[in-house]
Amino acid sequence: MKSTLSRRSLGLGLALLLSGIAAPAMAETHIVKMYTFDAAVSDQADFFDPPLIQVAVGDTVKFEATQSGHNTASKKGMIPEGAESWNSPMDVDFEITFTADGTYGYICSPHYSVGMVGLVLVGDYKTNLDQARKVKHRGKAKKVFRALFKEVDAIE
Ligand SMILES: [Cu+2]
């Protein structure tokens, strides 16, 4: 009886171990919410939450139209060479699967100048990090991107 139990728990342990090994290869979906205002989340009006995320190649980011009046669009010069740009309609949930390493800068089209911007870091994101950082911005986008790149520099 005792040996049966221990054999069973060994089997379970092995199954857990194997699923743990398989996990990194499985693509994940990450949520970024689009907000107009929610004091419980941020003092800022018009923002992505979270504005900076790090994902693996093959993962999907789902931009959720949590509140209305927003979209997501890649920012010219802020995605890796050869990567596909995007520009979602307003007020829809929008999914992007990232298949190439790199830093991806994006904006909300109507709220770019008030700083509704974000970064997705995919896999080996440093491949185009410097190019993405060099892009000039206007209004509050300048300040928000600068703060996000500072956060990126703090990774490791
Ligand atoms: Cu917006």
Bound molecules: copper (II) ion
> How many helical stretches?
3
Rounded mean pLDDT is 90
Q: Mind telling me the C-alpha Rg?
A: 19 Å
Q: What is the total tally of β strands?
A: 8
Content of β-strand? 15-25%
Q: Give helix and strand order, one letter per element, not per position.
A: HEEEEEEEEHH
Q: What's the shape?
A: globular
CATH-defined topology = Immunoglobulin-like
Q: Give the second-level CATH assignment, the architecture.
A: Sandwich
Low-confidence stretches: 1-6
**Proportion of residues in helical segments:** 25-40%
CATH class: Mainly Beta
- Derived from helix and strand composition plus strand pairing, the structural class reads alpha/beta
CATH superfamily assignment? Cupredoxins -  blue copper proteins
Largest sheet: spatial strand order:
2-1-4-6
Number of domains: 1
Main pleated-sheet profile:
4 strands, mixed
For the termini, the CA-CA separation is: 49 Å
